[in-house]
TrEMBL record:
Protein name as annotated: 16S rRNA (Guanine(966)-N(2))-methyltransferase RsmD
Chain intervals for the UniProt region annotation (Disordered): 1-25
Pfam families, sorted: Cons_hypoth95
Keyword Methyltransferase: yes
PROSITE patterns: N6_MTASE
Family annotation (NCBIfam families): 16S rRNA (guanine(966)-N(2))-methyltransferase RsmD
Coiled coil: none
Length: 185
């Protein structure tokens, strides 16, 4: 079961896709992620959040529940994106949550409409490191000064190739999951 951990939608369950298309970020990892984010910024209130490779949408919807001003979730699988939209409706997050059904590369190839303060990227573990590096390069123009970028990978994966405009800070392992933290200067 995946649920919202804190904020206005605390305790609300989220539906997740069936099969092996996604692996929702566990409650434990999401709690650690948001603890790190809140120690960085104090609060998510007013932040603009981008959830790339959104899967079930648990991270982006958690950010909304904790007060993010606007959340965009990018998920390439159309049925999964529809499920995320349904989850957003069920928790009352439709006004400030946008779900985009396209690839991360296609989304980031567009012109940024606003800068983002927090990015969570949880690419499928089989995604090649060079494809992730290309997506991170394309992300840089979207970032507000000082924006935080968090990349979730398998614990055996190498550190992401941080492009110019992003600086890797640290990593933290949670079982099979590794979170890499970076920031825009």
């Amino acid at each position: 079961m995946t649920r919202i951990i804190a904020g206005t939608a605390k305790g609300r369950r989220l539906r997740t896709p069936t099969g092996d298309r996604t692996r929702p970020t566990s409650d434990r990892v999401r709690e650690a992620l948001f603890s790190a984010v809140e120690s960085w910024c104090g609060s998510l209130h007013g932040l603009r959040v981008l959830d790339l490779y959104a899967g079930s949408g648990a991270v982006g919807l958690e950010a909304w529940s904790r007060g993010a001003e606007a959340v965009t979730l990018v998920e390439s699988h159309r049925r999964t994106a529809d499920l995320v939209r349904a989850n957003a409706r069920e928790i009352g997050a439709t006004a400030t949550v946008q779900v985009v059904a396209t690839t991360v590369a296609a989304y980031l190839a567009g012109a940024p409409t606003t800068s983002v303060d927090l990015v969570f990227a949880d690419p499928p573990y089989p995604l090649a490191d060079d494809a992730l590096a290309a997506d991170l390069r394309a992300l840089v123009p979207w970032l507000a000064p000082g924006a935080m970028v968090v990349v979730e990978r398998a614990h055996r994966s190498p550190e992401p190739a941080w492009p110019d405009g992003l600086v890797g800070d640290r990593s933290k392992r949670y079982g099979e999951t590794l979170l890499w933290y970076g920031h825009a200067p």
